[in-house]
Amino acid sequence: MAAPPTERAERDASDLVRALGAAATLFALGGVAAAILLDPTFSWTADALSDLGVRPRSAPVFNWGLMLGGAAGVGYAVGVWATSARRGVGVAGRAALLALAMVAMAGVGRFDLTEPLHAPAAIGFYALLTATLAVDGALRRGTTTGALALAFVPVHVAVWATFLAGWWPVTGLALPELPGAIALAAWVWFVGPLPVAGRVSARLDGDRTDEH
After folding, report:
1. pLDDT one digit per residue (tens) for the chain, 212 residues
2. How many helices (H) and strands (E) in the chain?
């Protein structure tokens, strides 16, 4: 039996939003991975990921990956808000924080390490991503996926606090930057309010309806 037109339209809209989320992470993380493969001098212990954006062989794929990922990510943020069953201040705030995080991510690619706006864009991305997960976790704290999103916040703060305190045996930023990139991908694919892998999320939450 065919689904009613309204239900089918809602499902199609959700599928489009999920596709944007998948594109955002695949462009961004795929670009980083490809850039690392293209740059044999890259060091996880001595370099920042942004060093890939200024080296001739890796710069185009790294920078364009972040810019395209950021553009798709803004669309995902808007879509998560538009498909939400609730439209309160918290839901709008979560979408706004995520959209700004994605703009900042695109800014890291648009303004390379030699430009003044690079550092604000990079710091803004990690700070806004952490804030997004905090708000999302608070909104969905009654679900397993919401609790997982919220749990990342103290972990991410601890990563940067311990690095800045000099507790890491590395000089570069690449390793401390990695947890944020992984958290973004995990949130979009598995534990966010409209995850790409929707069935996995449903199982984690016991097949309860998530109004995100």
Report:
1. 455 567 777 777 899 999 999 999 999 999 999 999 999 999 999 999 999 999 999 999 999 999 999 999 999 999 999 998 778 999 999 999 999 999 999 999 999 999 999 999 999 999 999 999 999 999 999 999 999 999 999 999 999 999 999 999 999 999 999 999 999 999 999 999 999 997 667 677 875 544 56
2. 7, 0
Q: End-to-end alpha-carbon separation of the chain, Å?
A: 28
For 178, counting Cβ atoms within 10 Å of its Cβ (0-12 exposed, 13-18 middle, 19+ buried), the class is middle
Q: What angle do CA 48, 50, 53 make, to 5 degrees?
A: 140
Q: How far is CA 96 from CA 9, 128, 169, in A?
A: 24, 10, 36
* Short-list 100, 98, 110, CA closest to 64: 110
Q: Which token pair is 82? A: 């538009």
pTM of structure: 0.91
Between CA 125 and CA 135 the distance in angstroms is 15
Three-class SS string for 20-33? HHHHHHHHHHHHHH
- Radius of gyration for the alpha carbons in the chain, expressed in angstroms and rounded: 18
Helix spans in 140-206 (H): 144-164, 174-186, 198-204
